[in-house]
Amino acid sequence: MPEERRKMIHFRKLYSFACFHSKYEHSHSQIGQKGYSRVVYCNDPYHSEAVELNYRGNYVSTTKYSAANFIPKSLFEQFRRVANIYFLVVACVSFSPLAPFSSLSILAPLIVVIGATMAKEGVEDWRRRKQDIEENNRKVKVYGSNYMFHETNWKELRVGDIVKVRKDEYFPADLVLLSSSHEDGVCYVETMNLDGETNLKLKHALEVTSHLHDENSFKKFTAVIKCEDPNEKLYSFVGNLSCDGKEYPLSIQQLLLRGSKLKNTEYVFGVVIFAGHDTKVVQNATDPPSKRSKIEKKMDKIVYILFSTLVLIAFVGSLFFGIETKKDFSDGNLRRWYLHPDDATVFYDPKRPSLSAFLHFLTALMLYGYLIPISLYVSVEIVKVLQSSFINQDRHMYDEETDKPAHARTSNLNEELGQVDTILSDKTGTLTRNSMEFVKCSIAGTAYGCGMTEVERSLARRRGDPLPETGDDVQGHEGEKSVRGFNFRDERIMHGQWLNEPHWDIIQKFFRVLAICHTVIPEKNEESGEIMYRAESPDEAAFVIAAKEIGFEFFRVTQTSISLRELDYETGEKVVRKYKRLHVLEFSSSRKRMSVIVRNAENQLFLLCKGADSVMFQRLSKNGRQFETQTKDHIKKYAEAGLRTMIIAYRELGEAEYKAWDVEFSKAKTSVTTEHDVSVDELADKIERDLILLGATAVEDKLQKGVPECIDKLSQARIKLWVLTGDKMETAINIGYACGLLREDMKQIVITLDSPDIDALEKQGDKEAIAKASLESIKKQIREGMCQIKSAKESDVKFGLIIDGKSLDFSLKKDIDKSFFELAINCASVICCRSSPKQKALVTRLLKGETGKTTLAIGDGANDVSMLQEADIGVGISGVEGMQICYFFYKNIAFGFTLFLFEAHASFSGQTAYNDWYMSFYNVFFTSLPVIALGVFDQDVSAQLCVKYPFLYLEGVENILFGWSCILGWMFNGFLTSIIIFFWTTKSMIKQAFQRDGQVVDYEVLGVTMYTCVVWAVNCQMAISINYFTWIQHFFVWGSIALWYTFLVIYGYLPPEMSTTAYRVFVEACAPSVLYWLITLLVVICTLLPNFTFRAFQTRFRPMYHDMIQINEFEGVETDELPRRVRKKLHLMERLMQKDRLMQRNS
């Protein structure tokens, strides 16, 4: 059975401008040429020519790996890390006689490290794959060969298929709209996932296909669409539909994009023209990148340094080994006869000392490999995963309203989160809540509305003004039900009290305009009887709701009329009034206003108009400016409060004037010439004059909770914020003011291509001329912007840069992108409007490439994916990864250098100081757990203090904890620790009686004693570096030391063939000896003293930012002021930055 079609409004007859008039443009002549070669056989996807074209299917994948490439690609990712390459080579060589230890002892840790990291990558990619599977297996109805619609998965769709999409469903591919449940083939579409806008877009089918409304009507339907090739342009589409021997032009008005949602329409029929990776939203996406953090790249550089050190000491050792070996056999004399140099292998051959030295060099490269921290990468990975789980479980990041916690999709970039220099943020849904609220208005020169907006509260706090005691923005009557979109309170006009106001008649006309001048559709909820409003924009919905709450309820609309329930002035009762709607002159970005012409029950004609103050005040009549001064004052105050304003006006039309205009307008409206838009615009302009001012509205695009305060904190932390949004320029600017990104004392630099010259060229259709003129215009505007900044360099004037999408296209071209970047970086705020997803990614790439600093992107929809992937990271916390990684290098140098000192002591013989498994377990078990606890649990200051003192974030931005001075300091400490351990133990033990029977220390006992000192020293070093102890950290630090003793006992009880040099050495030799315990105690104290002394000196005389706050907290000093040292340093940094920019401009 065919579904009932909605016989409501024929929008095609009601609307005035081009959205319902498909016409040929210059670009249509390019169809069939390069870039416009796609051919789609509608309702015939298996046509022989369609099969030959072999267009992509509708399967979409966003994963980084596939089953086929996971192992090779993941291994490639792992061996991008230089340490892993080194250990792979060592593992391979360990099977040769050159190895100083068993191959298993080096291969096992490598397999564990690589396997754990690959497993983490695999799990994270599997989660992405599950999301892909969920999307690809969504259901949609497709027209089959049996002439019926049947359900199928999205991934099964082919180009040319006819699909049926129902209300509130997403479009499965890019479709050309054929028809809808409305008789004239219109539908509403929500594109929030594509451009971030919540207002609904009106789409319409061609008249030739709008009659297709059931299965039978599609039996004989065939058509061929020729259109542009797949591209990323969301706001343009060019094509032709050939049907019944005629061609009809297609435009963006017929295109339904994948990822957008059908709203306010029961169903639509469409034909698939772009599927899968050819769809515009996927074309805007980029492949999941293999991101590596800056710290990880720096770790590689440090590993290079350590590897160079390793090569150097291996070379020194082999050189001395060669010299000593050569001396062992000279003129037939044997120097070290006990080594049997006359019967030696190639590894020790006094007759060929050079070869022996070279082979020793290879052995030393493996022996000193413990300078390279094999567990560093896997430990950091574990820390990242645990930090990500904490992010997911953080109560402060949980949203009660949506019942959604934070979700970290990847943990690869956690260490970057404390080093962000610039944040790139989407607007809609990120800075704002996608919610417009009517909060204030000015009527007849009187301001109404008592509440304070979030921005007003923020301003009052900064100025120190008193705030209302109430926590909410606006308080209504006790028990009064809150209404979405209406946050207005004023007893003078609510609850019918407007009837008692002096200008009650103007108030009446004001709210009548709000109730009538719109394109909203009312829908009645059958269960509750409530009327819901479906609007193209949230502003319109807020206006209609406001009118309803005051007493002018819009409840019915037909093709020719609109009905209200009004409060009658004389009787005080609700009455139904019907208005005949004659014309709708809709809003556009160039007109910046909207009007309707209506006839009331008394047969009077009115033009009702609302629009931006920049175009409305100039259209007022001499007699209509009575309240102009007061209204302008109110608008200024509303703008300062971050509210979006709209002027409300009207005029009464004479019968003769209207009839003459109507004839001209109807003729222009039905024309199909290229001058259609110009003619209609001129006639609309002609009648929208001599208006009478009624007042102004003020609506709030509700910000996310705490946005102004957050931006203020970011500013104090010297983090820059750029807003990249798909919204219109006016909307973005308003939000810029609302959230404090733009301020009244800022000068705006606006770069746009909305100029009469460019408009004239666009009408001519000469693409080359348009591109050339646009490029010159952008260059000129950038030059002028730089001149403004240079002229104001001596003053404290700050600038805000606002640029639209068209201008951004040219600004990102290679020849001028650096000029654009220089202009942007010299502005305090940057807002990019009407940005496509690809433009967002390109701006991010430009910023990241030119500054070389960490960028963080924040977004909430599919339109932000490319930006999120291009940026270094997506969301932020503050961490201590610098300290964690420095400690890794410290502990490995402290351990590895004792091997070198011992080998020097043993004439560079290649003899290891420790048992094979001591060395293998050092990084894996005995010293890695405390550093993981540090990275996950340590806090230098509490989260509350981090918010109170945003300058603490500068420690990450300035790289204080992972700068080269810090890294080299820890390395030096490692060398010092190894020297203290080796010389203390050897000098105090070797020649001393160690056991009761008078035996001296042997090789096994010396090795255990040195190793014990190393384990104690590096773990205690970790303990004194921890700022915030938890039981977990105590367990890991002291548990690691206890684990060493436990291992030593258990391993020592294994048979001598397995335990080798560890056989009962602890139980029978070390544990009973007082000297062993005494040396351990004294050596550990001596190794801790250098770093302890340095930190005490630093905290007292050269404190870091967090040291200052810790001292204040310890001394009980509470102040909101920055410490003097911080103020001085920040002032110096600001001056240096200004000087640097000045030098760049002059050069």
Highlighted features:
1147 residues, alpha+beta, nine-stranded antiparallel sheet, 32 strands, 45% helix, ATPase_P-typ_transduc_dom_A_sf
How would you describe the overall organization of this protein?
It comes from Castanea mollissima (Chinese chestnut). Belongs to the cation transport ATPase (P-type) (TC 3.A.3) family. Type IV subfamily. The structure is a single chain. The radius of gyration is 38 Å and the shape is elongated. Helix 8 packs parallel to helix 26 (881-905) and helix 32 (1003-1025) runs parallel beside helix 36. Mean pLDDT is 80; it is low at 470-479 and 875-882. 42% of the residues are buried. The chain is an alpha+beta fold. 45% of the residues lie in helices and 16% in strands. A nine-stranded antiparallel beta sheet has the order 18-17-27-26-25-24-23-22-21, with helices on both faces. It starts with 10 loop residues before the first helix and ends with a helix.
Short note summarizing the structure:
Residues 40-104 form the P-type ATPase N-terminal domain. With 1147 residues, this protein is α+β, with helices and mostly antiparallel strands. It is 45% helix and 16% strand.
Assembly annotation: single chain
Q: What characteristic shape results from the CA principal axes? A: elongated
* Cα gyration radius (Å): 38 Å
Q: What structural class do the secondary elements suggest?
A: alpha+beta
Spatial order of the strands forming the largest sheet:
18-17-27-26-25-24-23-22-21
Helix content: 40-55%
Q: Report the biggest beta sheet as strand number plus sense, adding barrel if it closes.
A: 9 strands, antiparallel
The tally of beta strands, per DSSP, is: 32
